[in-house]
Amino acid sequence: MFRWRSGKPAGKRDAECCHRLNGGNDDHQRPYRRPCRVFSCSPEEAAKVDAATRLVHYHHKDILAHQGDLGAKLWIVLEGRAQLQIIGIDGQTKLLAAHGPGELFGAYPHERVVISDIVVQNRLSVLEIPTAKMTALLQEDARLGSGLSRILGRQYNAVLDRMAARITLTANGRVYAELLHEAGEEGEIIPPPVIAALALSAQTTRETGSRAINALERRGIIRRDEQRLEILSRGLLEELVV
After folding, report:
1. Which of 27, 96, 101, 120 could pair with 124 in a Cys bridge, judged by C-beta atoms 3.0 to 4.6 Å apart?
2. Of 158 and 230, which is predicted with more confidence?
3. The whole model's pTM is what?
């Protein structure tokens, strides 16, 4: 069935496509493909998206696109996270944005030069579609366009939240806020987050992120092993977001 793509440069990936899942009768075998839920559309409209996309899996630190590449694809996140990383004037890697389940990133509405590296955090499952195909779909179906506007609206709010956190929260507070965001309502992250990636999302150093997470473990606020990170006391963790 599926295989994870290896961590080779993005330019070499097209020659080794993952297994393509065609639309139709095998939906019950495809736990990741949820265009109907993502776009809040009918099964018929979701089938159009399904037929135009392919399901792709990536490993941790795989590169979907490099800064300076010509971007001609969109990715719809089903599971995992992708980070848009850029090198700052000080030579350090900076987080431009991060995208998780239900979000969309890439070139839209036209092909464009990629302004950052797109790097996988932990693992990533996406629906991949050429920009031209997505543009054509949205022109044909107003409801898909409405679904896209809601996705982009949520992402805009997330960007504002991250900017506000950078201004108003301490480094530890940003780590805790990012932990709550990634854990979601379920209160757990599977597999557990890579500390360096979590720290980058919180716009701080790996050392600060590690100390912040270790402090939560010592206080019994979270529990972490090789399989998952679980928030045991959401209330106490929320109080630390300052």
Report:
1. 120
2. 230
3. 0.71
